[in-house]
Request: fold
Amino acid sequence: MQRSDYGFVALSLAFLGTLILLPISTSVMSVAGDSTMAARACSANLFLLAMAETFFRRHARRLDTSAFGSNRLLLSPLMLMLLFGAAALVSLAWPAACPALWSMAILVPLIENRWGLGRAV
Reply:
């Protein structure tokens, strides 16, 4: 935290802000079921959360490159951003398929462990 700046604090608050919205979008999804609007809201929230994490990690790495080792810290949030972005696009035509796409996020840690990528030292 000695090397933090305003960008780091702003990205941290953006990440926390999208995290705070997660229970709201989840409750909308549970109440509305397979509606297009609920699937869009939840997919958009998950996409914004993954995007905020990507930018947060990128900025933290820029502030102190030696603290994170040589691992590629952006692999997991980029994969999640791609997955949830695809779910947001799928929600436009087929909202019932979104929960199946969201559940594929469980594979991200398996991919990281398989190739040894994504974790800080």
About this structure: The helical segments are 6-32, 36-63, 75-93, 98-103, 107-115. The chain has five helices and no strands. The first helix runs from residue 6 to 32. Residues 6-115 form one domain.
